[in-house]
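Before a colleague's protein record goes any further, I have to sign it off. Would you go through it and say whether the fold makes sense for this chain? Take the sequence as given and treat only the tokens as open to question. The record follows directly below this note.
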Amino acid sequence: MPKTILVTGAGSGFGEGASIGLAHAGHEVIATAQIAPQVSALRDKACALGLDNLRAEKLDLLDAYDVRRALAWDIDVLFNNAGIGEGGPVSEVPVDLVRRSFETNVFAPLALTQGFVRSWVDAGRGGKIVFTSSVSGLFTPPGYAPYAATAHALEAIAEAMRQELRPFGIKVQTINPGAYLTGFNETTADTAFRWLDDGRNFTSRASMRETYNSLLATPQGRLDPCEVVDAMVEIVPTDEGRFRNVVPQSCEDMLRRHQTEAWDACI
């Protein structure tokens, strides 16, 4: 059945693609973006595609007035997709950057989610929450720990929520994409080079760039994002399915091996 779905972080990448795909599938979509230019661009795209059921709105998760307004919307599914990337060697990354990442990627979506959960519980109705996590929520590649730490935190929150909210008829899922070419991973890698200084840091800029190239400058690091968008369009509105959804299958296989091998890892 058609659902009313709120998508955060719909100004680009997976969020934009999923919003358009969900609207094409017949759902009522409230596609939200952080800044007004993204909202305007999304409205123009929806109009050009004839998607009267895609409504673009501004929602900066760190703006209390935006959040208050959003919590008044009547929705069936909250798709927490918004997030920022922060990279660099975790032993040297400025802690204020890590703190900001947690504010945007963890605390803000948690607050939004709590607001909708409370409204559903008070109304005696079910609902659904979907978090865009990452394969980095289940393992941590070098250079990505500042971002991966926030994804790990989302995994913990989602796993507990799934159990806590089941008695209220509220379902919880995660979607864990691999290294898809949306620009997010590349932009995350670039963040380190705005503070990494060969004159001060013991991690050299050259070695950090080599690390990122080894992860991203390969076919496995530049996958077609349409695969994840298609999966999101299928997973987000459904009432059944797996709690954790890793895309592609090769990444799920890698994570299973990694988690098994972790028990025997040596220092």
